[in-house]
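A brief tutorial aside. Many learners find it easier to grasp structure tokens once they have seen a single protein encoded end to end. The record that follows does exactly this for WLM domain-containing protein. Read the sequence first, then the structure, and try to relate runs of similar tokens to stretches of the chain.
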Amino acid sequence: MADNEAQTTPTPPPASDSDISITFTHHGTPHTLTFPPSATITDLSTHISATLSIPPSHQKFIIHPKPGLLKPPFPSPSLPLSTLTNRKITLLAPTPTDLTTLSKPTLPTRHSSPLKPANPTPHRDWKKTHDTTTYTFHTLLPLPHLPNPSRSLSFLQRLKADPGILHAMSTHHFSVPVLTEMDPAAHTTHASRTLGLNRNKGEVIELRLRTDAYDGYRDYRTIRDTLCHELAHCVHGDHDRNFWDLCKEIEKEVRQHDWKSGGRAVSEEVFYDPQGSEGAGEHVDGGGWTGGEYVLGGNTATNSRAPTQTMSRREAMAKAAEERMKRQREAGGGGSGASA
């Protein structure tokens, strides 16, 4: 056929007595076509493409009962149409108008918003999350019989959340069940004051938070340095060379990773120099203490408190949870409270 010769649309031959009729539904409209007895399903697809302007690539036939869903290219192109005359046929295909719309590129309008890049999903450091919840102080326990225990709890919470302490706990895998405050009266004599205690290599750590008169709190960084000292007792009980090396290492890590203060120490002095002076009559502790029960605010080494004040670690943790619930009820918050 020459290039300038008009193409003609194929039409089925004139109907005869032996011709077959195929009826299908497209978008709710029935269409009936006539074909010769030898016509196949490929002929049906070609005729729909010519008469309805729906190319085979967009045609899907649902034939009920079987064969079900068929679409070009057909698995059996020579399937006789005569086998489909009494079946329900539905053509799933866009209309010519739909095809025209789909073929046109969508151009941005004056009022259309520019496409915004997708925000990447934030990366979660699962190792850091695990370390934060594992290597930490699992229960914070202020002494309820001392004035203003809520302030002591805030002090303990600050120590637990300190960036330098967090780093040291994770680095050395320290997991401490109970961090509590020390009763000054129980650890003060006319000759000395104890600043901290570590019981059973990290089962309970006590810190002297308050002044001797109970009316104030000691310097935060001094207490934090005391905590570094007690953390070193989780590994070494005696004040030997290994202990002091670890203690100074923990102090250095805590100060370097305290981003809140720029990672700078207050002074060049190492607080726990065993030959240095730590204050009139003050000493950090007598070394790691092992054995016995935890005494709430008492002197465990001498076990001088009444038996009713002696508490196991489990009892101390239960007491802490009870105190949290009591404070929440008094504040009107209700609930069981978050685990410290």
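Self-check: The two ends are 88 Å apart (CA to CA). If you spotted this yourself, you are ready for the next section.
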